[in-house]
């Protein structure tokens, strides 16, 4: 079996090395070939026996039995042997563990006398059985060209003494046609019989014919944490239209990327009225804070879908919204031979223009910031207008109340035969008997009667 691990390592850097080591485990375990590579029965029963073989095309293969040791002890023993062979201590840069199969795969590097080396180590240690391991390494410059031939040679060297495991012949990858994302954020290569579903915003998704395979790169899913108070308010008060336009699912937040990925897919199935997917995670390894590489199956039997995935989780914002980013390769059990190489080539073909993605995200943030500031300014203007209308209404009401009060005072003065006069020279108001007020106004031009509208609060009433 040949899989383009070398090409994946060479072309995709650190992200590809993470995917490569996980891909190695899922192909060997998922296709029942792990035993063919490291058959315990093929090694002697004594512990710590190694064999070193030079690969004709370049590189070195170390195989050995490691006694009845734990997986950790067996791995340490193999790496000590690699240290001896290289003459320098190797540094492990990536690991992937398959707990179901009691096995682990490591990617390591080393430097000696100005030369750099890269290799992979594979160890299996089931309880009660002999542990076995193999390491393949070469110079870093040549490793991507020799890793696949070394894997082929290793399989030929380690044929199990028991019944041979079934093999799957992988068809070569189909020719790819490069499609640039319309927004300029990247490109992806897709075969002619595949469908390109998403291409933009630094994300991509393509599907094989009749659902035989799927490749996703940096696809985002949104969750709404129901424990967040603002999320609870949204769920209580959102209109049907707002709920319809919410592109996410109500799902508690977890920083565990494996648990979050599984819960997200189960939640999406519930949201769309589909049967709950049977998700089995066979291997996972951390890849930084809230990120992981993993592999496993969706479903069982002939309908099973094998996958490898890289997942990271972004924590909730103040409104309770959190995000999950998913890059994966899905291949159905029936189509591994036909589509595995092609799916890997499609995933390997993704090229992202990170500058364009950053510019696009900056433009989106600026757009939302401008919209936010415009909304705030509009709210403030509406608040000021409402306050002005309120002040005007209150002033009008106070004026009306005051007018009514003055009229009531004038009626009271009339009923008590009184009148209010004002000294025009001093502005002083006086409340007098009506007859005296009439005489005073008639005989002294400095005095005038005060109409009800001009009565003074605190003076005339």
Please explain how this structure is put together.
- The protein is an alpha+beta fold and 461 residues long.
- It has 3 domains: 5-157, Protein Transport Mog1p, Chain A (3-Layer(aba) Sandwich); 177-352, Protein Transport Mog1p, Chain A, CATH 3.40.1000; 373-454, no CATH class.
- It contains 10 helices and 20 strands.
- α1 packs parallel to α4.
Give a brief outline of the structure:
By secondary structure, this protein is an alpha+beta fold. It has helices at residues 5-30, 34-37, 71-86, 140-157, 229-237, 240-245, 257-271, 336-349, 354-415, 434-443, and strands at 49-54, 60-65, 91-98, 103-112, 115-124, 132-139, 177-180, 186-190, 195-200, 203-207, 213-224, 249-250, 279-286, 291-298, 305-314, 321-332, 351-352, 418-423, 429-433, 447-449.
β-sheet strand percentage: 25-35%
Rg from Cα:
40 Å
Q: Helical content, roughly?
A: 25-40%
Kindly report how far apart the N and C termini lie: 108 Å
List the helices and strands and how they pair.
Layout lengths: L4 H26 L3 H4 L11 E6 L5 E6 L5 H16 L4 E8 L4 E10 L2 E10 L7 E8 H18 L19 E4 L5 E5 L4 E6 L2 E5 L5 E12 L4 H9 L2 H6 L3 E2 L6 H15 L7 E8 L4 E8 L6 E10 L6 E12 L3 H14 L1 E2 L1 H62 L2 E6 L5 E5 H10 L3 E3 L12
Parallel strand pairs: 11-12
Antiparallel strand pairs: 1-2, 2-6, 3-4, 4-5, 5-6, 7-8, 8-17, 9-10, 10-11, 11-16, 13-14, 14-15, 15-16, 18-19, 18-20
Helix pairs in contact: 1-4
């Amino acid at each position: 079996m040949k899989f383009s691990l070398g090409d994946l390592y060479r072309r995709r850097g650190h992200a590809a090395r993470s995917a490569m080591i996980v891909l190695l485990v899922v192909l060997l375990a998922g296709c029942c070939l792990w035993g063919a590579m490291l058959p315990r029965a093929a090694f002697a029963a004594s512990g710590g026996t190694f064999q070193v073989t030079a690969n004709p095309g370049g590189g070195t293969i170390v195989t050995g039995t490691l006694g009845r040791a734990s997986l950790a002890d067996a791995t340490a023993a193999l790496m000590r042997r690699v240290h001896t062979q290289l003459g320098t201590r190797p540094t492990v840069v990536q690991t992937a563990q398959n707990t179901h199969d009691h096995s682990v795969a490591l990617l390591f590097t080393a430097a000696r006398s100005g030369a750099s080396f890269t290799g992979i180590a594979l160890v299996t240690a089931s309880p009660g059985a002999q542990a076995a391991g193999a390491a393949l390494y070469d110079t870093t410059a040549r490793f991507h060209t020799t890793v696949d031939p070394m894997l082929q040679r290793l399989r030929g060297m380690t044929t199990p003494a028991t019944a041979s495991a079934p093999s799957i012949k992988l068809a070569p990858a189909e020719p790819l046609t490069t499609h640039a994302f319309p927004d300029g954020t990247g490109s992806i290569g897709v075969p002619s019989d595949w469908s390109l579903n998403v291409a933009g915003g630094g994300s991509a998704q393509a599907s094989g014919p009749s659902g035989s395979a799927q490749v996703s790169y940096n696809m985002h899913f949104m969750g709404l944490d129901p424990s967040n108070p603002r999320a609870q308010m949204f769920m209580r008060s959102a209109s049907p239209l707002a709920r319809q336009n919410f592109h996410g699912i109500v799902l508690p937040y977890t920083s565990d990327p494996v648990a979050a990925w599984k819960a997200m897919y189960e939640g999406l199935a519930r949201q769309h009225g589909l049967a709950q997917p049977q998700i089995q995670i066979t291997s996972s390894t951390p890849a930084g804070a809230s990120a992981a590489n993993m592999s496993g199956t969706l479903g069982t039997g002939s309908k099973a879908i094998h996958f490898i995935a890289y997942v990271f989780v972004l924590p909730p914002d103040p409104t309770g919204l959190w995000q999950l980013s998913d890059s994966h390769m899905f291949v159905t059990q029936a189509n591994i031979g036909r589509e595995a190489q092609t799916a890997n080539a499609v995933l390997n073909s993704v090229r992202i223009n990170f500058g364009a993605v950053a510019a696009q995200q900056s433009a989106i943030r600026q757009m939302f910031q401008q919209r936010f500031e415009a909304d705030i300014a509009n709210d403030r203007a509406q608040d000021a207008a409402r306050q002005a209308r309120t002040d005007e209404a209150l002033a009008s009401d106070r004026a009306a109340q005051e007018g009514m009060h003055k009229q009531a005072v004038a009626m009271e003065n009339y009923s008590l035969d009184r009148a209010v006069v004002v000294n025009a020279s001093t502005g002083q108001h006086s409340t007098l008997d009506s007859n005296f007020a009439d005489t005073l106004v008639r005989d002294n031009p400095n005095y005038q009667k005060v109409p009800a509208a001009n009565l003074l609060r605190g003076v005339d009433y």
